[in-house]
Every structure is written in structure tokens, then in C-alpha cells.
Design a protein that fits this description.
By secondary structure, the protein is of the alpha/beta class. 33% of the residues lie in helices and 21% in strands. The strands form 3 sheets. The chain has a 6-stranded mixed β-sheet. It has a 6-stranded antiparallel β-sheet with strand order 9-10-11-8-13-12. A hairpin with a 4-residue loop joins β5 and β6 (121-124). It is globular and about 60 Å long. The termini are far apart.
């Protein structure tokens, strides 16, 4: 008809891809499951020589994190305890390669050749790097995207619920309990037991205590483990020097309510994770993409780190399914996920600043509600 413009219908990507997902934790597994279900030929490569344990037991279960299990499996939301185990049950072991530490990769216009530390070389059409905050891929692609220390660490620990006096366990049983004081705050809440049980009395009571340490000698000494080795990202259970764990318990007695101090005191081997910011200006490099913490590492105050990684996977699959070419799909995906990463990083920086530095944490402030895209966005 005169005056009407012809409607152009863009064809979707027809070719199914051979894809490597490097990093077999929650973000990598979610992306792998989604890509496989879209018809792609997917293999997961995990650097650990042994199966991962206790992944996702204490995370905030936002909608993006649970969306795959609830929407694509027969698992009810109330039956999800340890997300990693459920994802592994869905994925299976056949295409999950343990002991494969990626050391480098080379790419052309149409393929990527990945080199592993064990000498193996494999060729793919797309490489999804979900290799976490210490990402080898990010270091190779963006060597100047260094992590920035936030000025505080998260001391963590767990106590069997059955080890606590009944009156204390009852107070902590069905809530996230906060305590805020000058330049610090702590969260205490129940998580599944090591076997995944969520039955009262069989769970663990978990604490996360944010404490400030000055960058320089004080921080360096904290991160020097009991054997004299300087760690960068974390001190695993049993690694912290004895005088630091003693100081942690003494500070708990001095600064925390007895209810919460008892949880810290009852933790046999506290451990800590350094709070870092990592921001990137690119997530796509021809046939290589950075997913989850391999791109943006955000502070944990929105409980959205794993949700962001899962969302990266969902949007990647959607982009591949609605674009005419791989470059077009990845460009669309990158634009959306960089915006999400920047917004979430800025929000978690602001929350951290208010609680650890400015002391403007106000109980009931909606900004502190967990969420991915915005506070309260489940």
C-alpha cells in the first residue's frame, strides 16, 4: 500500500556453536546449561582437580539465580538448598572436565584455540570465561583492569546450629540478623548443612562480619597466613594467623551483642575474603566473552553477585537466539551487561561506604534491600 514501509524481518542465528565455558561454578554452570538447551555443543572446564563443594550454600537466592532450576527443572523453589549441587545434577559429569586450568588462548575471526596447563589444546567457536574474580582471561585481555581494595574485608564462619544453646539458635533461626556499629556491620543467618539439609537443628549458622583494615602494612600483615605466605584474595579456613583469629574473637566480645559474639566464638576456623571492586569497559573480545565476576566483581552488599553471573548467561543465550550473527549477538549482550554491572557496582559501593566509612546506615532504608537490578528486585 502507498505510504507503508516494508517490514524487514531479521533472521536469527542459524549456526549452532561449539562452546567452551571456562569456570564450573554457579555462573559458568548456569550459562552452560542454557547454551546446551539452546542446541549448542558445550563443554565446561574447571581448574580444580576435585569436585567443588559447598558452592552456593550461603548465597542470596535472588530470582536470576534460581530461575533456571525453577523454570527448567522439576525442582520447587522451597526444595533448593545448595544451588551448585542442583546445577551439577542437571548438567552431569560427561562434559564437565576437572583439572583443566586455562593458561592462554588464541583466536581468529571465527574460532578460539584454548591452551590448558595440562598441555591440551581445544578449538571452539565461542569461549565463555566464567573464571571468577582472579580471571586468567581478564588478565590477558584487560591487563590494566586491576582490582581495587575497598578498605575492608569480610570475615566469615559457620557454626552447627546444634552446637549453639537452644535459646540462641531460636533467636537466629528464621532471619538475617544485622548489627551495625561505627565503621562496621555483621550479618548472621542460617544456611543449609553440609549435606544440604534445611531442617532446624541440622543447618549451619553463618556470619559475615565486615571489618576495616588500612591498606599497606596493616592489610599486608593480615593477609600473611600462618605459614608466612602473602595471600591476595582470601584466607581459607585454617589459614589465618592465630593472633588474628584471637583478635577477631576479642573484638566480638567487645563490640557485638552476646547473641552474635557467641557465633563468632563458636567458629572453629574463621576465614576471610577481601572486598574488591573490579570494573571493566569491555566484556566481548571477538569470540571471547567475560561473564560474572570475570568481568565485574561487585561488593556483596546487594547479595547479587551470583544473580548477576546467572543473568549474564540468560541474556547471552537470548542474544544468540535473536541475532543474525555472532558479532551482532555479542555486541547486543555486551551493551546490556556492562550497564547492569556498572549500576550494581555503584550501588554496592554506596552501601559499603555508608556502612563502613560514612556511618549513615539507617535501619529500614530501602536501599539496603537485596536485589539485582534495583533494591528489592528479586
Amino acid at each position: 500500500m502507498p505510504g507503508r514501509q516494508a517490514r524487514h524481518i531479521r533472521p536469527a542465528l542459524n549456526d549452532l556453536l561449539r562452546i567452551a565455558v571456562v569456570g564450573g561454578s554457579l555462573g559458568g554452570l548456569t550459562a552452560a546449561c542454557l547454551l546446551r538447551e539452546a542446541g549448542h555443543d558445550v563443554t565446561v572446564y574447571e581448574r580444580s582437580p576435585r569436585p567443588l563443594e559447598q558452592r552456593g550454600a550461603g548465597i542470596g537466592l535472588l530470582e536470576a539465580t534460581s530461575r533456571y532450576l525453577v523454570g527448567r527443572t522439576a525442582i520447587e523453589l522451597t526444595d533448593i538448598s545448595i544451588v551448585y549441587r542442583h546445577l551439577m545434577d542437571r548438567w552431569g559429569n560427561e562434559r564437565y572436565r576437572l583439572g583443566h586450568d586455562m593458561v592462554s588462548f588464541e583466536q581468529s575471526d571465527s574460532s578460539v584455540v584454548v591452551l590448558f596447563a595440562n598441555g591440551e589444546r581445544e578449538e571452539f567457536e565461542l569461549l565463555v570465561c566464567a573464571d571468577g574474580v582472579g580471571s586468567t582471561a581478564r588478565q590477558q585481555l584487560l591487563p590494566n583492569a586491576a582490582s581495587a581494595y575497598a578498605g575492608y574485608v569480610a570475615w566469615r564462619g559457620m557454626v552447627p546450629e546444634s552446637d549453639l544453646p537452644p535459646e540462641i539458635a531460636m533467636e537466629l533461626t528464621d532471619a538475617i540478623t544485622y548489627h551495625v556499629y561505627a565503621n562496621s556491620h555483621i550479618l548472621v543467618y542460617p544456611i543449609p548443612g553440609l549435606d544440604g539439609s534445611v531442617v532446624r537443628g541440622e543447618r549451619l549458622i553463618n556470619f559475615v562480619w565486615y571489618r576495616n583494615y588500612l591498606e599497606g602494612p596493616e592489610f599486608d600483615e593480615l593477609m600473611t597466613d600462618r605459614h608466612g605466605d602473602r595471600r591476595d584474595l582470601s584466607l581459607p579456613p585454617g589459614a589465618a594467623a592465630d593472633h588474628h583469629t584471637a583478635e577477631l574473637r576479642a573484638s566480638a566480645r567487645a563490640h557485638l551483642p552476646p547473641l552474635l559474639a557467641s557465633v563468632v566464638a563458636g567458629t572453629a576456623e574463621p576465614f576471610l575474603q577481601v572486598v574488591y571492586d573490579i570494573e571493566v569497559d569491555r566484556m566481548v573480545f571477538a569470540r571471547v566473552v567475560l561473564l560474572g565476576d570475570a568481568a565485574f566483581a561487585v561488593r556483596p552488599h546487594a547479595a547479587a553477585g551470583t544473580a548477576k553471573a546467572a543473568e549474564d548467561g540468560w541474556v547471552l543465550v537470548d542474544s544468540l537466539g535473536s541475532s543474525a550473527s555472532v558479532p551482532e549477538a555479542l555486541a547486543a549482550w555486551e551493551s546490556k551487561q556492562i550497564a547492569l554491572g556498572r549500576d550494581l557496582l555503584e550501588r554496592t559501593r554506596r552501601i559499603g561506604r555508608r556502612s563502613q566509612i560514612d556511618n549513615t546506615w539507617i535501619p529500614g532504608d530501602p536501599e539496603f534491600i537485596f536485589g539485582l537490578h534495583q533494591p528489592g528486585d528479586q
